Amino acid sequence: MVDKLAKKSQKSGLKLMAFQLLFVLVIALISTVFFSVKAGYSALAGGITFVLPNAIFVIMTFAHAGARQTKLVLRGFYAGEAIKLFLTVVLLIVFLKYGTVLLAPFYVSFALLVASQWLAPLFFYNNNGMKNDS
Q1: How crowded is the C-beta side of 76, counted as CA atoms within 13 Å?
Q2: 0.90 exceeded by the pTM?
Q3: Phi (first) and psi of residue 66, to 5 degrees
Q4: I need a labelling partner for 45 at 20 to 30 A (CA). Which of 20, 28, 80, 100 fits?
Q5: Both ends of the chain: CA-CA distance in Å?
Q6: Local structure of 99: helix, strand or coil
Q7: Which of 39, 44, 36 is nearest to 20 (CA)?
């Protein structure tokens, strides 16, 4: 369940997720075209290892908003971060131990997606619900 107040923030977070998913697809496409299909698959696996846990974090973190729901906001943030870290470790183990991925495209894709978090303020800047109007 998402509060009305939280919808704007969650929408901004989902825009960031859509950007990161598109970024993963572009990295996988470039890896496939310039290197090999296996490199593209590895880049896709590295990107999914970041994007899927981050999507769960965004959904849980921005489910609530407002001063009256501070405990729910904090609970969502901490639970989302814990699930994100746990799922990231599980996906890293699954892909690196049981998958047949090339390490360089996998890690490069994962690292680029981690660095893409630095663009997050661009997606939240135009959110009028987050600005201080005083």
Answers
A1: 20
A2: no
A3: 105, 155
A4: 80
A5: 30
A6: coil
A7: 44
CB-CB contact of 60 with 79 (8 Å): yes
Separation CA 92–CA 90 (nearest Å): 5
What region does 100 belong to: left with phi over 0, alpha with psi -120 to 50, or beta? beta
Q: Which two tokens stand for residue 45?
A: 């696996």
b/e burial code for range 35-65 (CB count within 10 A of at least 16 → b): eeeebbbbbbbbbbbbbbbbbbbbbbbbbbb
Taking only the tens place, the pLDDT of each residue in 26-40 is 999 999 999 999 999
Burial of 109 (0-12, 13-18, 19+ CB in 10 A): buried
Question: What is the per-residue pLDDT across 55-107, written as a single tens digit (0 to 9) for each?
Answer: 999 888 887 777 677 888 889 889 999 999 999 999 999 999 988 899 999 99
* Per-residue tokens: 31: 């890896």
Query: Does residue 5 sit in helix, strand or coil?
Result: helix
